[in-house]
Amino acid sequence: MERIKEIALNSLGIDENVFDLVMNEEKKLKERFSEIDDITDYNQMKVICAMQKNRLAIDHFCGTTGYGYDDEGRDVLERIYADVFKTEDALVRPQIISGTHALTVALFGNLRPGDHLLSVVGSPYDTLEGVIGYKREVKGSLKSLGIQYSEVPLKGDGTVDLEGVEKAIRPNTRLVTIQRSKGYALRPSLSVEDTAEIISRVKAVRDDIICMVDNCYGEFTDYTEPSEVGADLIVGSLIKNPGGGLAPVGGYIAGKAEYVENAAFRLTVPGMGKEVGPTLGVTQSLVQGFYQAPQAVCGSLKTAVLAASVFKALGFEVSPEPLEKRCDIVQCILLKNRENLISFCRGIQMGAAVDSHALPYPAPMPGYDSDIIMAAGAFVQGSSIELSADGPLREPFAVFLQGGLNYAHGRMGIMKAVQNMVNEKRLKI
Ligand SMILES: *Cc1c(COP(=O)(O)O)cnc(C)c1O
Question: What is the mean pLDDT of the chain?
Fold first, then answer.
């Protein structure tokens, strides 16, 4: 502790009262941290078991080029994902470039003209607007192919309107999408139990409706995943939780074999599906990233809990609360005004290992309707399992903080954020 204080004060530019504030909040969180450790240890063992069961071997890392036929490492990685998520099959590919792309592949692969797609959490993540083609016309969107879309607005308290969901199901409803994490919305994220309840309501109306969970930011935050409570498909990004900070790119789609195959036929070629797709030498990073993922999620969860505790102590509204159950790695802090939001994000950037000298500015982003500021000093471009913060420049000036490959770095990032706000006279401690 003395050594930590010394380097923080002498080399990182942290004031003693900022350091003491953060360390005092940390002391209150011992019990919460040990719950997180338990989830982490369980998931770590689950992942290793799947690796052993599938006889993961060093020669699986050599990779393929060209068509990627007979890529055994790729197939083993996909079986490991399927075992950990307890699904029939999985598609885990570097050719999937983001979470949005993975969701796009799952949706286009499983929906046909005339089908109806239903979102049960109000509007889904901003970047899906163009994919679905609601709010605005986009060439090649689901809507342009004759796929209907509707959504069930959230209730006043931000929870899912279960009766509303039942009523919104049409005879041609083919797929229900359930977004677990809050995105830029100010609603509580969904727990695995919440998703279970939504799925059982949907299946009670018609059990052939595909229930898809956007699992982005949710993986390994709990003992179970939505695929263990009835989700037919779960979808996520490898530059978030399951990539463990090591995957340089990728996404996954796991679930019922038939629906995973439909997605694979859309990603590659109808009739070829999972048989093709070279791994180009990234297999080791994807496998080792998955191995590391429970630890990265652990660092991220503890960072989020500490940030909640510190900023609550500083008088800000936070969601979730420090001791509340967490269903994803995202921490929302209502920073009250534009200057606080910018100052916070700049402090987080200053705490990064990569690009710590860069100064983030708010700017327009494709797919978002207000300016966004992003602190993203990461080894992998845009990776948000690494400590990052972003928020739209609009009321209530909420910042969304996520990631932290290890807790020591996450804690340091929080100190830098507080310190920058103090230096810019946004805070007095
Ligand atoms: C990150 C995220 C996505 C996908 O975003 P990409 O930037 O395309 O990876 C989708 N849904 C949610 C809830 C997310 O958090």
Answer: 97
User: What is the CA(219)–ligand 1 centre distance, in A?
Assistant: 13
Burial level of 65, CB count in 10 A (0-12/13-18/19+)?
Answer: exposed
pLDDT bracket for residue 136 (50, 70, 90): confident
Rounded to the nearest angstrom, the distance between the alpha carbon of 59 and the centre of ligand 1 is 33
403 lines ligand 1 (CB under 6 A): no
Residue 377: φ, ψ to 5°: -85, 90
Question: What is the C-alpha to C-alpha distance for residues 301 and 403, in angstroms, rounded to an integer?
Answer: 8
Reported as a single tens digit per residue, the pLDDT across 235-293 is 999 999 999 999 999 999 999 999 999 999 999 999 999 999 999 999 999 999 999 99
Regarding the beta carbon of 383 and ligand 1, being less than 6 Å apart is answered no
> Which stretch of DSSP H or E encloses residue 16?
helix 16-27
Q: What Rg value do the Cα atoms of the chain yield, rounded? A: 21
Report how far ligand 1's centroid is from the alpha carbon of 428 (Å).
Answer: 35
